Amino acid sequence: MTIERKKIKKESLGQWFEKMTAAGNRIMAPKRNKKQVCFETVTSPAEVAFDYVQTTVSAKRAVFPPVEEMLAYKFADKETKLEEKEIKPQPTVVFGIRPCDADAFVTLYEVFSRDYKDDLFLNRWEQTTFIGISCIQADSACFCTSTGGNPGNTKGSDVLLTPLKNGDFLVEVVTEKGKKIVTAAENLFSSADSDIDKESLLAKLPNKFEGKDMKAKINAQFDNEALWSRQSMRCIGCGACAYVCPTCQCFGIEDERFGSKGKRIRCWDSCCFGLFTLHTSGHNPRHTQWQRWRQRLMHKFSYEPDNLGVPGCVGCGRCSRACPTDMNILEHMLEIAEEKA
Amino acid sequence: MSTPNLYKPYIMRVDKITEEAPDVRTFRLVFTNEEEGKNFEFKAGQFGEYSIFGEGECTFCIASSPTRKGYIECTYRKAGRVTSALARLEEGDLMGFRGPYGNTFPIDEWKGKNLLFIAGGIALPPMRCVIWNALDLREYFKDVTIVYGARTVDDLVYKHELEEWGKRPDVKLVTTVDPGGETPDWKGEIGFVPTVLDKMAPRSENTIAIVCGPPIMIKFTFPVLDKYGFTPENIYTTLENRMKCGIGKCGRCNVGKYFVCKDGPVFTFTQLKELPPEY
I need a surface site. Which of A8, A253, B94, B254 has the fewest CB within 10 A? Predict the structure, then answer.
């Protein structure tokens, strides 16, 4: 559908939240907790942080929780009874998601919907509406313009808000889902003046590397052990990068037993963990940390674009901000871009 | 909006347990839900996720042939948490299975050709599926040769079947054990699989080679096959990376742009040469 432009006053957000909650939605939005800003369940805009560059952890947990029950069962004598459970997620509005994070949901959707349809993810996704907020500031870790995005990108958002100078918001209704949630509170929105120049409101973020060239460039460095060793020398394999990443979707499947009950769960995992690929025999296909670091970058900049036709990295910069040893993905990508083929 | 859960296993009953070698057993599994059993289909080369509730899932190939209906079999060695729990099961016990997953050996394309199976140790099970599949359709294939080795005589799996294949006039079976692994009455070869294969000087003409074994065996077998003129597209293997989901989501078995679970586990040597060495 063509994007429809409207306006909403900042003081009307409260009523919009009330409408959305009354319709049965859980609202998840960035909330400040000391130094961190993270997505949590909120009921009013007063709880929402608007003044941050990037949330500490991405919004992916709204659709892909860190720990998720796949099956539950009961033990009785020698028999195990599977508990039939309907997968019926609560309708959710993710409010205040950055354009890079919204873009990341397009990548996650591709992973979970291609070939085998993963309904644990897809049912939640269908019940989720993404209301993005454009970026009016960026920091030195941001590089979305190098991965195909931009501070006002509408891709992945159902509705995108852009803060105006007076504190109100320009509203872009991007999808049918977005239209539904705006129409349900129609009286709160006014028509947008045609002379609003969205571009001028956005953060300025010059392109740092040519995203479309990166696949060929990183493929050319695959056998450059010196490069990967140099880059990953500081890596302690903690997995923080994967934990905060909006596109990382690797998971593990584990069973937990509590007396006569048990459940099978899936949990976020990371290719940077040494145990990730370890065979029971002791053989490990990626036995060194530099191979694991290479896998992380290859997966994002070569394999996912190849397999899914979407970027595997959206340039949110969270991994660089979270890394306890100060590894910086942007510096690494710039090094790869400049390395001789 | 209720949809079937992709990760929900079939409930299977352990119908028969066969002791194969120290810590190695074969389970014959039947579906507890007849309807599910009737609708279940698989092809040679595919695998599944076998599970014990409360312990977890693990990945093995389906070791029985699709020509044998009504059950599936798996052979495993007791090694980790789940296989240790499997080892505690008795006939009649229940367990989980989901699958079949992955691609298949293109058996139909091999009709009219000689088949050379080369296996080492606990890697005979993924090949046993193809061997029985081919033997059950014996008239479609020319010579069938099986070369199988293990560390010791005790470690050879499917001893009864090896005996059966050895007696068949339409199968050439060569078994071998590593030097020092023989018993006084051992009548087979002594030596590593690639060495024994070299000594046999296999004919590559109109022949498909199917190789499965530990990485070190595979590494030394390819040069031997190359020496006798086998071309990479006529050499098949099946990879066994660590897996969790089995359906290309969890990221574990990612090798280059491929997922062993979804794009494999069956690969030709031509495809293998293009993969990064991460298997």
Answer: B94
